[in-house]
Amino acid sequence: MDGNGRWAASRHLPRLAGHREGARAVRRTIEAAIHHGVAWLTLYAFSSENWRRPAEEVLDLTGLLRAYIRSELAELAAAGVRLRVIGERERFPADVQADLAAAEADTAGNARLNLTVALSYGSRAELAAAARRIAFEAEAGTLDAARVDEAMVAGRLYTAGMPDPDLLIRTSGEQRLSNFLLWQAAYAELVFQDVLWPDYGEPHLAAALADYARRERRFGARPG
Ligand code: IPE
Ligand code: MG
Q1: Residue 222 burial (CB < 10 Å; 0-12/13-18/19+)?
Q2: Is 166 a catalytic residue?
Q3: Could you identify the atom of ligand 1 that is nearest to the CA of residue 174?
Q4: Is the whole model's pTM more than 0.90, yes or no?
Protein backbone atom coordinates (compact mmCIF):
# COMPACT_ATOMS: atom_id res chain seq x y z
CA MET A 1 0.00 0.00 0.00
CA ASP A 2 2.04 2.91 -1.26
CA GLY A 3 1.43 6.55 -2.02
CA ASN A 4 -0.12 8.04 1.12
CA GLY A 5 2.54 10.73 1.37
CA ARG A 6 2.27 11.74 -2.28
CA TRP A 7 -1.51 11.83 -2.03
CA ALA A 8 -1.23 14.27 0.88
CA ALA A 9 1.53 16.34 -0.72
CA SER A 10 -0.50 16.82 -3.91
CA ARG A 11 -3.23 18.35 -1.75
CA HIS A 12 -0.83 20.42 0.38
CA LEU A 13 -1.85 18.34 3.40
CA PRO A 14 0.32 16.80 6.12
CA ARG A 15 1.37 13.18 5.56
CA LEU A 16 -0.93 12.13 8.39
CA ALA A 17 -3.92 13.13 6.24
CA GLY A 18 -2.68 10.72 3.60
CA HIS A 19 -2.32 7.92 6.12
CA ARG A 20 -5.84 8.62 7.43
CA GLU A 21 -7.24 8.42 3.93
CA GLY A 22 -5.15 5.29 3.43
CA ALA A 23 -6.98 3.70 6.37
CA ARG A 24 -10.27 4.41 4.58
CA ALA A 25 -8.88 2.73 1.48
CA VAL A 26 -8.04 -0.32 3.62
CA ARG A 27 -11.67 -0.54 4.64
CA ARG A 28 -12.91 -0.18 1.04
CA THR A 29 -10.45 -2.76 -0.18
CA ILE A 30 -11.40 -5.30 2.47
CA GLU A 31 -15.06 -4.86 1.52
CA ALA A 32 -14.18 -5.21 -2.16
CA ALA A 33 -12.14 -8.35 -1.47
CA ILE A 34 -15.09 -9.92 0.34
CA HIS A 35 -17.39 -8.86 -2.52
CA HIS A 36 -15.12 -10.53 -5.07
CA GLY A 37 -14.78 -13.72 -3.07
CA VAL A 38 -11.11 -13.29 -2.25
CA ALA A 39 -10.35 -15.71 0.61
CA TRP A 40 -6.88 -14.43 1.56
CA LEU A 41 -5.75 -10.83 1.61
CA THR A 42 -2.43 -9.65 3.00
CA LEU A 43 -1.82 -5.95 3.50
CA TYR A 44 1.71 -4.58 3.83
CA ALA A 45 0.95 -1.83 6.32
CA PHE A 46 4.32 -1.17 7.93
CA SER A 47 7.73 -2.50 6.96
CA SER A 48 10.73 -3.19 9.21
CA GLU A 49 12.36 -0.31 7.35
CA ASN A 50 9.49 2.12 8.12
CA TRP A 51 10.85 2.49 11.69
CA ARG A 52 13.51 4.70 10.11
CA ARG A 53 10.93 7.37 9.31
CA PRO A 54 10.81 10.48 11.53
CA ALA A 55 9.56 9.65 15.05
CA GLU A 56 6.49 11.83 14.56
CA GLU A 57 5.34 9.85 11.52
CA VAL A 58 5.98 6.52 13.26
CA LEU A 59 3.87 7.79 16.17
CA ASP A 60 1.11 8.87 13.78
CA LEU A 61 1.10 5.46 12.10
CA THR A 62 1.06 3.60 15.41
CA GLY A 63 -1.79 5.83 16.58
CA LEU A 64 -3.76 5.12 13.42
CA LEU A 65 -3.20 1.40 13.84
CA ARG A 66 -4.43 1.56 17.44
CA ALA A 67 -7.50 3.58 16.45
CA TYR A 68 -8.20 1.34 13.46
CA ILE A 69 -8.24 -1.87 15.48
CA ARG A 70 -10.48 -0.33 18.12
CA SER A 71 -12.98 1.20 15.69
CA GLU A 72 -13.14 -1.45 12.96
CA LEU A 73 -12.67 -4.75 14.73
CA ALA A 74 -16.31 -5.39 15.60
CA GLU A 75 -17.39 -4.73 12.02
CA LEU A 76 -14.60 -6.85 10.56
CA ALA A 77 -15.53 -9.71 12.87
CA ALA A 78 -19.22 -9.40 11.93
CA ALA A 79 -18.25 -9.54 8.25
CA GLY A 80 -16.52 -12.88 8.80
CA VAL A 81 -12.96 -11.61 8.73
CA ARG A 82 -10.22 -13.54 10.47
CA LEU A 83 -7.29 -11.32 11.36
CA ARG A 84 -3.68 -12.40 11.55
CA VAL A 85 -0.58 -10.30 12.01
CA ILE A 86 2.85 -11.11 10.58
CA GLY A 87 6.02 -9.25 11.47
CA GLU A 88 8.02 -8.18 14.51
CA ARG A 89 4.98 -7.31 16.60
CA GLU A 90 7.11 -7.07 19.74
CA ARG A 91 8.47 -3.77 18.42
CA PHE A 92 5.08 -2.09 18.91
CA PRO A 93 3.88 -0.58 22.22
CA ALA A 94 2.49 -3.14 24.67
CA ASP A 95 -1.12 -1.91 24.36
CA VAL A 96 -1.04 -2.28 20.57
CA GLN A 97 0.39 -5.79 20.93
CA ALA A 98 -2.41 -6.64 23.35
CA ASP A 99 -5.05 -5.25 20.95
CA LEU A 100 -3.59 -7.24 18.07
CA ALA A 101 -3.54 -10.47 20.08
CA ALA A 102 -7.13 -9.89 21.21
CA ALA A 103 -8.24 -9.16 17.64
CA GLU A 104 -6.63 -12.38 16.43
CA ALA A 105 -8.22 -14.40 19.21
CA ASP A 106 -11.66 -12.80 18.75
CA THR A 107 -11.73 -13.53 15.03
CA ALA A 108 -10.05 -16.96 15.08
CA GLY A 109 -13.34 -18.69 14.29
CA ASN A 110 -14.01 -16.68 11.10
CA ALA A 111 -13.21 -17.97 7.64
CA ARG A 112 -14.84 -15.74 5.02
CA LEU A 113 -11.80 -13.54 4.51
CA ASN A 114 -8.40 -14.35 5.97
CA LEU A 115 -6.94 -10.92 6.46
CA THR A 116 -3.25 -10.77 7.26
CA VAL A 117 -1.67 -7.48 8.17
CA ALA A 118 2.10 -7.21 7.81
CA LEU A 119 3.38 -4.96 10.58
CA SER A 120 7.06 -4.26 11.11
CA TYR A 121 7.44 -6.93 8.47
CA GLY A 122 10.55 -7.59 6.41
CA SER A 123 11.06 -10.66 4.30
CA ARG A 124 14.82 -10.94 4.83
CA ALA A 125 14.45 -10.67 8.61
CA GLU A 126 11.75 -13.36 8.43
CA LEU A 127 14.04 -15.67 6.45
CA ALA A 128 16.98 -14.99 8.76
CA ALA A 129 14.78 -15.84 11.76
CA ALA A 130 13.74 -19.10 10.07
CA ALA A 131 17.39 -19.94 9.40
CA ARG A 132 18.21 -19.21 13.03
CA ARG A 133 15.46 -21.52 14.27
CA ILE A 134 16.57 -24.30 11.95
CA ALA A 135 20.17 -23.88 13.14
CA PHE A 136 19.11 -24.04 16.80
CA GLU A 137 16.99 -27.12 16.17
CA ALA A 138 19.86 -28.82 14.36
CA GLU A 139 22.17 -27.90 17.22
CA ALA A 140 19.69 -29.29 19.74
CA GLY A 141 19.51 -32.49 17.73
CA THR A 142 15.75 -32.23 17.04
CA LEU A 143 16.29 -31.72 13.32
CA ASP A 144 18.68 -33.34 10.84
CA ALA A 145 20.51 -30.57 8.96
CA ALA A 146 20.87 -32.79 5.89
CA ARG A 147 17.07 -33.06 5.63
CA VAL A 148 16.27 -29.33 5.65
CA ASP A 149 13.93 -28.76 2.72
CA GLU A 150 11.62 -26.08 1.36
CA ALA A 151 8.69 -27.20 3.51
CA MET A 152 10.81 -26.87 6.67
CA VAL A 153 11.79 -23.34 5.74
CA ALA A 154 8.20 -22.39 4.83
CA GLY A 155 7.00 -23.89 8.11
CA ARG A 156 9.22 -21.54 10.08
CA LEU A 157 8.09 -18.33 8.41
CA TYR A 158 5.40 -16.06 9.87
CA THR A 159 3.16 -17.36 7.10
CA ALA A 160 3.44 -21.04 8.11
CA GLY A 161 0.26 -22.82 7.09
CA MET A 162 -0.97 -20.00 4.86
CA PRO A 163 -1.21 -20.34 1.07
CA ASP A 164 1.34 -18.52 -1.08
CA PRO A 165 -0.02 -15.38 -2.73
CA ASP A 166 -1.35 -15.81 -6.29
CA LEU A 167 -1.45 -12.10 -6.98
CA LEU A 168 0.71 -9.31 -5.62
CA ILE A 169 -0.42 -5.74 -6.14
CA ARG A 170 1.71 -2.65 -5.63
CA THR A 171 0.16 0.77 -5.87
CA SER A 172 1.50 4.26 -6.62
CA GLY A 173 3.39 3.31 -9.76
CA GLU A 174 6.47 1.97 -7.95
CA GLN A 175 7.69 -1.34 -9.37
CA ARG A 176 9.53 -2.97 -6.47
CA LEU A 177 8.81 -5.72 -3.96
CA SER A 178 10.44 -3.77 -1.10
CA ASN A 179 11.20 -6.82 1.04
CA PHE A 180 7.63 -8.17 0.94
CA LEU A 181 6.97 -11.94 0.97
CA LEU A 182 10.08 -12.67 -1.11
CA TRP A 183 9.91 -16.41 -0.46
CA GLN A 184 6.12 -16.71 -0.58
CA ALA A 185 5.67 -14.68 -3.78
CA ALA A 186 8.02 -16.90 -5.86
CA TYR A 187 5.22 -17.58 -8.37
CA ALA A 188 2.89 -14.68 -7.65
CA GLU A 189 1.57 -12.68 -10.58
CA LEU A 190 2.72 -9.09 -10.14
CA VAL A 191 0.39 -6.21 -10.87
CA PHE A 192 1.59 -2.63 -10.59
CA GLN A 193 -1.15 -0.03 -10.49
CA ASP A 194 -0.55 3.64 -10.99
CA VAL A 195 -2.95 4.75 -8.28
CA LEU A 196 -2.01 6.28 -4.94
CA TRP A 197 -3.16 4.06 -2.07
CA PRO A 198 -5.64 6.59 -0.57
CA ASP A 199 -7.50 6.54 -3.92
CA TYR A 200 -7.65 2.73 -4.02
CA GLY A 201 -10.97 0.95 -4.02
CA GLU A 202 -13.22 -1.62 -5.64
CA PRO A 203 -12.64 -0.61 -9.29
CA HIS A 204 -8.88 -0.95 -8.83
CA LEU A 205 -9.12 -4.32 -7.13
CA ALA A 206 -11.53 -5.49 -9.83
CA ALA A 207 -9.06 -4.38 -12.52
CA ALA A 208 -6.18 -6.20 -10.82
CA LEU A 209 -8.26 -9.38 -10.51
CA ALA A 210 -9.25 -9.14 -14.19
CA ASP A 211 -5.60 -8.70 -15.13
CA TYR A 212 -4.71 -11.73 -13.02
CA ALA A 213 -7.44 -13.81 -14.66
CA ARG A 214 -5.88 -13.16 -18.08
CA ARG A 215 -2.43 -14.42 -17.05
CA GLU A 216 -1.33 -17.92 -17.88
CA ARG A 217 0.28 -19.49 -14.85
CA ARG A 218 2.72 -22.29 -15.49
CA PHE A 219 4.84 -22.55 -12.33
CA GLY A 220 7.86 -23.36 -14.48
CA ALA A 221 6.14 -26.09 -16.46
CA ARG A 222 5.84 -26.20 -20.25
CA PRO A 223 2.88 -24.46 -21.86
CA GLY A 224 0.17 -27.08 -22.03
C1 IPE B 1 2.48 4.09 2.31
O2 IPE B 1 2.54 5.39 1.88
C3 IPE B 1 2.12 3.99 3.77
C4 IPE B 1 3.15 3.42 4.66
C5 IPE B 1 4.34 3.06 4.33
C6 IPE B 1 2.76 3.27 6.05
P7 IPE B 1 3.89 6.22 1.96
O8 IPE B 1 3.93 6.91 3.27
O9 IPE B 1 5.05 5.35 1.63
O10 IPE B 1 3.64 7.29 0.81
P11 IPE B 1 4.68 7.90 -0.24
O12 IPE B 1 5.45 6.78 -0.85
O13 IPE B 1 5.54 8.86 0.52
O14 IPE B 1 3.81 8.60 -1.24
MG1 MG C 1 6.16 4.99 -0.08
Answers
A1: exposed
A2: no
A3: 12
A4: yes
Q: 48 C-alpha vs ligand 2 centroid, how far in Å?
A: 13
Using H for helix, E for strand and C for coil, what is the string for 140-199? HCCCCHHHCCHHHHHCCCCCCCCCCCCEEEECCCCCCCCCCCCCCCCCCEEEECCCCHHH
DSSP reduced 3-state for 79: coil
Tens-digit pLDDT profile for residues 57-105 = 999 999 999 999 999 999 999 999 999 999 999 999 999 999 999 999 9
pLDDT per residue as tens digits for the range 107-120: 999 999 999 999 99
Q: Note if 2 is an active site residue.
A: yes
- Radius of gyration, alpha carbons of the chain: 18
Domains of the chain: 4-213 (3.40.1180.10)
Ligand 1 binding site (Cβ under 6 Å of any ligand atom): 1-6, 22, 46, 50, 61, 172, 197
Listed in sequence order, the residues at least 6 apart from 100 whose beta carbon sits closer than 8 Å to its beta carbon are 69, 85, 89, 92, 119
Q: In whole angstroms, what is the distance from residue 211 CA to residue 48 CA?
A: 30
